[in-house]
Design goal:
Radius of gyration: 22 Å
Number of helices: 1
Bound molecules: zinc ion
Helix content: 10-25%
Distance between the termini: 46 Å
Number of strands: 4
Shape: elongated
Mean pLDDT: 84
Number of domains: 2
Largest sheet: 2 strands, antiparallel
Oligomer: single chain
Strand order of the largest sheet: 1-4
Structural class: alpha+beta
Length: 104
């Protein structure tokens, strides 16, 4: 039995996924031993989070928040990856790759 494999490296770059909106959220961390824990939920703009914070502070006088901004990223191959080299369990065709840090 002969087993043959062709392996090669493909360079990928990490890019922002422009098809997905950024998400913003805040959680009230006011309190010494136990924090309030009230959460804004995911919002589409920082202004919406700001408005939620203003309302929560007006209602409770709580004034300390943990705010997060989340975005989506994609590893994008810098060259065409033939379908035969794609891993069947990954619908996006990602394969074992050599990853170099590249500043963009
Ligand atoms: Zn609170």
């Amino acid at each position: 039995m002969t087993v043959r494999a062709v392996l090669r490296y493909v360079t990928y770059l990490l890019r922002k996924d422009e098809t997905a909106e950024d998400e913003f959220a805040a959680r009230c961390v006011w309190g010494d031993e136990t924090e309030c824990g009230a959460e804004s939920g995911n919002m589409q703009t920082p202004e919406e989070v700001h408005d939620w914070q203003v309302k929560h502070t007006e209602e409770t006088r709580h004034n300390r928040y943990r705010r997060v901004r989340a975005d989506y990223q994609l590893w994008v191959p810098t060259e065409h990856v033939p379908p035969a080299e794609r891993h069947p369990s990954n619908p996006q065709g990602l394969e074992p790759a050599k990853v170099d840090r590249v500043k963009v």
